[in-house]
From TrEMBL:
Protein name: Small ribosomal subunit biogenesis GTPase RsgA
Coiled-coil boundaries: none
Co-factor binding comment: Binds 1 zinc ion per subunit.
Region of interest (Disordered), ranges: 1-33, 189-213
CC cofactor: Zn(2+)
Enzyme Commission no: 3.6.1.-
Record-level Gene Ontology MF annotations: GTP binding; GTPase activity; metal ion binding; rRNA binding
Family matches, as SUPFAM superfamilies: P-loop containing nucleoside triphosphate hydrolases
Annotated source species: Allostreptomyces psammosilenae
Length: 372
């Protein structure tokens, strides 16, 4: 698996320093050594539903966390009533360091970054091939967000029964982004089937799949998600719900608990929602490892990303063939200016011009335009 650097996420994992220095020792809080370990599944009005030992436990942030944010996907330590019984409320006393943070600014002019999902490693960008028409600029913006966060992108092209995938895939071929093609959810695929470990790659098998327009089977899709935390994003109507429901048939159960607390309807939450995928054996009725098959994180509120916080150098990090050529760039080069060293780098044959073109298109997509 390709991992991108996420070292600049450090500030997210630094818990606010305690006040040990300025207070008598006896007043320091106990360290909660007996705390239980949990995963944040969803958040609604300050109530966090966590998975603790297979139970859904509703919790709130302990005061000692201060302003430290807790987001879906976080691994947390909890104390208090962990029974998960109706009306009980546990306390989250610690947030474990994050392996990744997917963030957005609400708007491109909004200086505040918000972490929307923690610990994901894959971003599934769901795009309909027709109805609604694909919008490549939006895809580019999602890709930039993925590269910035260190998530590996996966293009999921739906509604292949309505339009061919090839024209769109040709645009993304230079990026080597992995992709799958679906029609009517996942069960109709008879063509290409990803096997264990044989993850399709843009450069390798992806091209073939594009030519044949082979559609991914359910088993193929599960192979791509197995053991990983995948965030699904997509515009309304692209078929994201159809897809997630096919993968997690019992998803309604996961949202039921929060609704019981707030009394709100099932689809009104704007929080992301983490859904554990079941192992094959488990789906057949046998007990399985709840973590083993991976997680799908549905994001009803995330259709695009404000990209004001994006650092071009983190995006270029996803282009190792070009990153090397930026050594001679002027300081703070936008990589789209006359003195940029990448033109010479490509002219000298060190990298494919189509790669540079794609990189520049992605960087340019950071500017919000009407329709984004
Ligand atoms: N022709 C065709 N229609 C599809 C396909 N997948 C989903 N649809 C239809 O597209 C419409 C939207 O699907 P949803 O799964 O609700 O899409 P969504 O992205 O979750 O949309 P929101 O719920 O609005 O966020 C529904 O009428 C689906 O039946 C497909 O592969 N082919
Ligand atoms: Zn440059």
């Amino acid at each position: 698996m390709r991992r991108y650097d996420s070292s600049s996420d450090e500030d997210d994992i630094r818990v606010r320093p305690g006040r040990r220095g300025s207070r008598p020792r006896t007043r320091t809080r106990p360290k909660h050594e007996d705390a239980a370990f949990g995963h944040v599944l969803t958040i609604d009005r300050g109530r966090l539903t966590c998975l603790v030992d297979g139970r859904e436990v509703v919790a709130m942030k302990a005061r000692e966390l201060g302003r430290k944010g807790v987001v879906v996907g976080d691994q947390v330590a909890l104390v208090g009533d962990l029974s998960g019984d109706e009306g009980t409320l546990a306390r989250i006393v610690r947030v474990e360091p994050r392996a990744s943070t997917l963030r957005r600014t609400a708007d491109d002019d909004d200086p505040f970054e918000r972490v929307i999902v923690a610990n994901a490693d894959q971003l599934a960008i769901v795009i309909a091939l027709a109805d609604p028409e694909p919008r490549p600029r939006l895809i580019d913006r999602c890709l930039v967000a993925a590269y910035d966060a260190g998530l590996e992108p996966l293009l999921v092209l739906t509604k292949a029964d309505l339009a061919p995938a090839k024209p769109l895939l040709d645009v993304y071929a230079p990026l080597g982004v992995r992709h799958v093609v679906t029609a009517h959810g996942l069960d109709s695929g008879t063509g290409w089937d990803a096997e264990d470990g044989a993850v399709p790659d843009g450069e390798a098998t992806g091209g073939e799949a594009a030519e044949e327009d082979g559609r991914v089977t359910e088993a193929g899709m599960r192979a791509l998600l197995r053991g990983r935390v995948t965030v699904f994003v997509g515009h309304s109507g692209v078929g994201k719900t159809t897809l997630v429901n096919a993968l997690v048939p019992g998803r309604a159960r996961a949202t039921g608990r929060v609704n019981a607390v707030t009394g709100r309807g099932r689809h009104t939450t704007t929080s992301a929602l983490a859904l554990p995928l079941a192992e094959e054996a488990e789906r057949a009725g046998a007990p399985g490892d709840p973590e083993g098959a991976g997680w799908v994180i549905d994001t009803p509120g995330v259709r695009s990303f404000g990209l004001a916080h994006i650092d071009p150098s983190r995006v270029i990090h996803a282009f190792p063939d070009l990153e090397e050529g930026t050594a001679d760039c002027p300081r703070a080069c936008s990589h789209d200016e006359p003195d940029c060293a990448l033109d010479a780098w490509v002219a000298e044959g060190h990298a494919d011009p189509a790669r540079l073109h794609s990189l520049r298109r992605l960087l340019a997509s950071r500017e919000r335009r009407e329709g984004d």
